[in-house]
Every structure is written in C-alpha cells, then in structure tokens.
Amino acid sequence: MSERLPIKIDSTSNGEFRPVPLDAGLRAARRLAGERIADNARRTGTSRRAFITSLCGAATALLAFDEVFAATGRSGGAFPLPKEAALEPAAAEATLAGREFVFDVQTHMVDVGGAWRRRPEGRPWERALAGFPQGSCGEADPVACFSAERFVKEVFVDSDTRIAVLSFVPGLPEDNPLTIAEALRVRSLVEQLEGSDRLLLHAPVVPNAPGEIQRMETIAGQFKVAAWKVYTQWGPERIGWRLDDPRIGIPFIEEARRLGIRNIAIHKGLPFSGMPLEFATCADVGPAARLFPDVNFIIYHSGFETSRREGPYDAARAERGIDALIKSLADNGIGPGANVYAELGSTWRFLMRDPTSAAHALGKLLRHVGEDNVLWGTDSIWYGSPQDQIQAFRAFQIANPLVQQYGYKPLTQAVKAKIFGLNGARLYGIDPAAAMRRTELDPLGRWKQRAESRPSFATYGPRSDAEYEAFLAEHRGRPL
Q: What is the pLDDT of residues 236-253, one digit of tens each?
C-alpha cells in the first residue's frame, strides 16, 4: 500500500472508468510530497499523522505537487501557495480554510444490509465491493466501508461539505445496491442528528426498462425528489438511449415535467466498458435542452473522459468529452447560463493530477456553460472524504497565459464560491445563508467545532487494470 497523503492523487477509479496509472511525473510528485511531509512533521515536532491532518500538511503536499508539475510541463494551472504555508498555520489557513457554502451535488453509498446481498443477482455487487483495495476500513464486513454511518462521517464530519445530494448507481430497483428505502433511512439518520436538511435525494429511473416511466409517479409520492437520476448509456439489455429519443427520452422528460420535478441529473462521459459509446456522449444534451427549456439538465461529469487530455475547445474535433457537450449546446443555441449545468464529480478529482488539463476543462465550462451553471460534486464516498478535493480547488488557479489566449475567466474567490455551492443552491431552491447558519448550530456542526477531525485519507475504488477487470467480471460488466 502506498503512503497516504492529505491530498489524494492516485489511480483510484469510481468503478465507472478504467483506472489510469500514475506516470513517472506523478509518482515523483507523490514521493516528494511524502518526503516533505516527513521533514516538516519533524521540524514542527509533531507526528506524521498529526501533521497530515493539519492545513500545513495539505499545503506541503500541494506545494510539492506544484514543484513537480511545473518541471514536467503541467503548468497551465497551479496550486499557488506561499512557501511558509507548509509550516505556518496562518499562512495555510489563508488559502485552504475557506468559508464558502459547500454543496456537493453528487455523493454515493450502498445499503450494507440490503436484500441485494442475498439475491444471486446482487452477489456480484457484494464481491466487487468487498474486493475494493483498502476495503477493510476497520470493519469486520468490508462492504461496511460504504455504509450510511461511514457516509455521514466522510462527507459531513471529515469535510467542509454543508449539504449533499445522495445519488444512485445504474441498476433496476430489485438489485440496486442502494434502495430508495435505504436512502430514506440515511436521510432520517441525518435528521435524527438534527442534520438541518443536510441531505437531498435523487430518484433513480431506467427509462428504457418496462414500467419505469410509469413508476415515477409512485416514487414522487414516496418522498420529496430533488432530481431524477439517469444513465443514458445503461439499460437492462446493455443498450442505451438518447434524451431526445421520441420513444424513451422524450416521454421520460415529459413525465418529469408533469410531476413538477424538473431537475434531471444525467451521467455523461466516463463511458462504461463494453457498452455502446454513442449513448455516453453529450450529442443529445443540446437537442433535449432546446426542446424543454423549462427543464434543468445536470450533466454529471460534464461529459469528461479520462482517455482524452483536455485542451482548448476545437469545434472541428468535438465528438467526445467536454468538447462534445460544448458543441451540442452551441449547435442548438443553448448559451451560458441557460438550462444545462456541468457537474464536476470525478472530473475534478481526476484533473487534479494534470493542472493544464484542469485549467482547460474549467476554463471551457465557465466560458461556454457559464459561471452560474458549473456545479460542485465529488463522487464521494468512492474516493473517501472529499476534503482534499475541496482544499485543492480552493488553491487552484488557471495560468494567466491561458486566460489571455483563450478568454478563460479567472478563478476568483467569487467564481469559486458559485461553483462550490451557490449555483447548486439556486438550482435546488436552497437559501445558502440560512443553510450555513443551520449547519453550524446543528449537532454535526457543533461536534466539528469542538472535536479533532480524524480523516482516514483512504479511497475505496479499484486502482489497477487487474482490479478493474476483476471488478467488471464480478458484476457482469455493470459499472459501479
């Protein structure tokens, strides 16, 4: 097992894409960060564990990463921090301890005691989850790493996240590792902690499965649905669908409108292995957004693909990835600030390892989708606590040459505040100021103020090609 760092740059996948190994430069960045952390822990007279949980530990890691990134040509963006931040808490706090309203619109967990574990169809999920690297998080049952209790700790206790949306993985209700009943239980658990409406819930729909569109009305009657969650690349027969398909996509969107729940979160990008690629791209987003201007289309992952290094937008080569989303919007007259939202779950986490790609990705989304329409999401708890993603984003800046050459908007604190939560709050009808006050005074908020955080710095997804192949084999090629 490699040494854990306070800012996690590694090959971990969320199960929806093949792990991408670290190159020599990234391995060098991790080594340097580990060495600097050990040195600075000694210099400050603290244990390594105590140092990496401090802001100075996070600053030390980011400074080391930046040093190697600059030397290996990843200089289109950076994590600029004063050098004294590695040793002086006040200097680290100035950048890494923000007071933004952090609203994570994509989080995950599983029902540890659910019926899916007792069904033949569910056993592959159990074996896959139990086989995740570092799956033994101190629990006798490895699947408990993904439990409701672990979820609350990782998301609300070990990070600055104030409110989160609990989403679903692809699968029909009978063998999905997260049921609506368990999602409701988790929300009740948070409410029992006087969690101040900290948790919103998606409702999963598989529109290309019989009876699923009709079931939406029943679901909407069971609980307050914050948004519908769909995977256009997935279906019971391993065949996807398009949002503008008159047989599937359009009836689904029309039913969402009829029920008055007009936020739709759609997995786009991060293509599933062995399934038709055409349904993973964003080509259908613009047409659907044009047809339904009163529906909000939340594009999970922003169409990002790990196999494509992000660069400046090129309309002539925009069939895939984030560029495909931008082209689809442009071709259908959907401008910045319209009814399409770009979400950063897994996207930002992967891009943290390449500041140049990160700069282009964020710069393009802010310019073409709009600074009011980029949403914060982390895909946790697959990556453990999202705190390292939050701290890295607080520090990140797009290099001035890229801002000037491509017209990118600088990542000011005001823009970051919008991305971190103000945009999502507007979309989901949340008063950020009131939510901040509530979450500071509820039991979770009070506990955080008086107790020392003990994050594990662990991640739980597959990290190598072999682990990913075994993962796919264990659950018949379905992504997590």
A: 888 899 999 999 999 999
CATH number at residue 258: 3.20.20.140
Confirm whether 206 is domain-assigned.
yes
- Name the domain count of the chain: 1
Ordered alpha helix ranges (H), 383-422:
387-395, 400-406, 413-417
**pLDDT at site 332:** 98
- C-alpha closest to that of 321 among 379, 277, 286, 375: 277
- Indicate whether 470 pLDDT > 70: no
pTM over cut 0.85: yes
In the chain, % helix, strand, coil (3-state, to 5) comes to: 45, 10, 45
Query: Using omega within 30 degrees of 0 as the cis cutoff, is the peptide bond preceding 163 cis?
Result: no
What is the phi-psi region of residue 100: left when phi exceeds 0, alpha when psi lies from -120 to 50, beta otherwise? beta
DSSP 201-239: EEEE--TTSTTHHHHHHHHHHHS--SEEEEETT--TTS-
Query: Is 426 buried (19+), middle (13-18) or exposed (0-12) by CB count in 10 A?
Result: middle
